Amino acid sequence: MKGKEYATPFPMLHAASLLSHTSRIRKFREAIRRVVKTNDHVVDLGTGSGILAILAAKQGARVTAVDVNQDSLAYAREAAGQNGVADRIEFVHSHFVDFSIGRRADVVICEMLSSMMLIEQQVSASSYAVENLLKPSGHIIPEEVRIFAVPVQNEIQWNRFQIDDLSFPRVPQTVERGQSVDLADLMELACFDLTIPNPDAKVDKTLDFKIVQTGIVHGLLGMFECRLHSEIVLTMDDGWRELFLPLPKPVDMKAGQTLSLRVEFRPGEYDSLLLQTH
Ligand SMILES: C[S@@+](CC[C@H](N)C(=O)[O-])C[C@H]1O[C@@H](n2cnc3c(N)ncnc32)[C@H](O)[C@@H]1O
Q1: Fewest CB atoms within 10 Å of the CB: 1, 17, 76, 161?
Q2: What is the pLDDT of residue 6?
Q3: CA 140 to the chain's CA centroid
Q4: Which of 31-62 are b and which e, b meaning 16 or more Cβ less than 10 Å from the residue's Cβ?
């Protein structure tokens, strides 16, 4: 697929379920409190339940809240009314690449984070926002995201695409961390500065993992850390699950050996993923 075709299918009920991640919301709330000033124009890209738009409106901003999902926008509109800020938020049904504004915004908020920046479009949406929507002196939340990976043993995940005599193509799956055994230490895969345009962002790195525990590598487990503003940092514990990337074939490894793994993908383009062992 290409560009605009990656509108992450994100049902309204899933967007509403993110309201239960209270530590995530508290960190965004603190970042918004520090960055957004009364009468600022704020754009919220991927508004979902409307939570971040509502927090910005409560801070005295005029907000334009954008989402590709009509049902989520209807829910967010109702939530804005319930919280007394309906007159401060304009809701726009659009893919972010089709969204433009006359005068650039003081602040852009964009939460399309996914475990490895592989599934959702955090990197491309932030890049588009900095290039097309944000004043040069404006602020974007979040500001930076770093992704990490570790080779793991996880037979259940690797085998889940084989059902009796039926087999299906293996694709990345979110998992609970405790379900896998780490066979090496975590390594950084990439760091994206979201305050600058990054239209050609790509991950293409060979990681040399020093195996610390003998076992079978079934795949990589990916995770992230994200700086919202200043020292306010989101981690996986704030509401995300790790992403399991299955290897084409499991690899037997002994403690002390090195596993060289090439990881290649364009952020937000889940079908661009390439995993290769050397
Ligand atoms: C992770 S949710 C975040 C929702 C809300 N901002 C929050 O923090 O709870 C991402 C939202 O972005 C929307 N989205 C995904 N791809 C999009 C795109 N290409 N253009 C506009 N919105 C998009 C989804 O429909 C979803 O509501």
Answers
A1: 1
A2: 77
A3: 15
A4: bbeebbeeebbbbbbbbbbbbbbbbbbbbebb
What residues contact residue 274 under an 8 Å CB cut-off, 6+ apart? 262, 263, 264, 265
Q: Taking CB atoms and a 6 Å cutoff, what residues make up the pocket around ligand 1? A: 7-8, 10, 15, 18, 46-49, 51-52, 66-69, 72, 95-96, 111-112, 121
Q: Does domain 145-277 have CATH number 2.60.40.10?
A: no
Which amino acid is located at 20 in the chain? S
- Tokens of residue 35, six digits: 């960055």
C-alpha of residue 161 to centroid of ligand 1, in Å? 28
Say if residue 87's pLDDT is above 90. yes
Ranges in the chain annotated CATH 3.40.50.150 = 8-111
Q: Is the pLDDT of residue 1 over 80?
A: no
pTM: 0.96
- Residue-wise burial string across 101-124, b where 16 or more C-beta atoms lie within 10 A, e elsewhere: eeebbbbbbbbbbbbbbbbbbbbb
Query: From ligand 1's centre to the CA of 160, what distance in Å?
Result: 28
What letter does residue 255 receive in the DSSP assignment? T
Q: Where in the chain is the domain with CATH 2.70.160.11?
A: 145-277
Q: Are 148 and 117 in contact (CB under 8 A)?
A: no
* Annotation: CATH topology of 8-111: Rossmann fold (3.40.50)
